UniProtKB/TrEMBL annotation:
InterPro entries associated with the record: Methyltransf_11, SAM-dependent_MTases_sf, Thiol_S-MT
GO MF term set: S-adenosylmethionine-dependent methyltransferase activity
A Pfam family: Methyltransf_11
PANTHER family, A to Z: METHYLTRANSFERASE LIKE 7A, METHYLTRANSFERASE LIKE 7B
Record has Transmembrane as a keyword: yes
Gene transcribed to yield this protein: Mettl7a
Keywords: Membrane, Transmembrane, Transmembrane helix
Membrane spanning stretches: 7-25
Protein's recorded name: MET7A protein
Kinase as UniProt keyword: no
Organism: Urocynchramus pylzowi
Domain Methyltransferase type, first and last residues per copy: 73-170
């Protein structure tokens, strides 16, 4: 039944599959479709997850470095929807593998002038070589680990760039319980969803990757963030300390 429904969904999305076969969809998706759609989705997601984010980032000031400054690196910044939750004076380095979020990013920077923006780096989460080892107090990653090529490599980079005692903050959608209808529909939607949404994987059990990473302290909470007509309700939220 999963395969039949996948085939039906693929038929509905056949123009995208055709454009992908012709090599047109990926550049169009990266430059136009994904930045536009992601900003709209993030707007809805931010409203649904606002209380969770406020609670998540509440203790960010506790991880200020010895100088009293908080140096924060965000992986997959996108249009900067997390800026509103960062404490005043925080020094932010933005990274994203896709450089086509500049319009939304500039708009959110102007809205959040309580922060100091250091630089914007075009970089994948798995390769942050432009960031020196042990140079940041906190790393933030929200709705990004679903689409990186390697979760374990990304987490290794997170631990490398964090100073000892620094923290990694995350909020990510994850696979549902295998016996649930949500997981059934995640499996049905998986191939087409991944194509349409720039590599986003619906069925990753990211809490396992986090538990396998070498954090000295790890706090993970499983929550639900209901998104209309989208199979991404199960989430995890928390932070790990290096």
């Amino acid at each position: 039944s999963v395969l039949l429904l996948r085939a039906g969904l693929a038929l509905l999305a056949w123009p995208i599959y055709l454009l992908s076969f012709l090599g047109i969809w990926e550049p169009f998706c990266r430059k136009v479709f994904f930045p536009f759609v992601l900003e709209k989705i993030c707007g809805i997601h931010d409203k649904k997850s606002k209380k969770h984010k406020q609670e998540l980032f509440r203790n960010l000031p506790d991880f200020r470095g010895p100088s009293g400054e908080l140096r924060l690196l965000e992986i997959g910044t996108g249009s900067g929807s997390n800026f509103q939750f960062y404490p005043p004076g925080c020094k932010v380095t933005c990274t994203d593998i896709n450089p086509n979020f500049q319009e939304g990013l500039s708009r959110n920077m102007k809205k959040n002038q309580h922060l100091h923006y250091e630089q914007f780096l075009v970089a994948a989460g798995e390769d942050l070589r432009q960031v020196p080892s042990g140079s940041v107090d906190a790393v933030v990653c929200t709705l990004v680990l679903c689409s990186v090529h390697s979760v374990s490599s990304t987490l290794r980079e997170v631990l490398r760039v964090l100073r000892p005692g620094g923290a990694f903050y995350f909020l990510e959608h994850v696979a549902a319980e295998h016996s649930s209808w949500t997981y059934f529909w995640q499996q049905v939607c998986y191939p087409t969803w991944k194509l349409v949404f720039a590599g986003c994987c619906l069925t990753r059990e990211l809490w396992k990757n986090l538990e396998e990473a070498k954090f000295s302290e790890l706090k993970i909470q499983h929550i639900s963030v209901a998104m209309p007509w989208m199979p991404v309700e199960p989430h995890i939220v928390g932070y790990g300390v290096k």
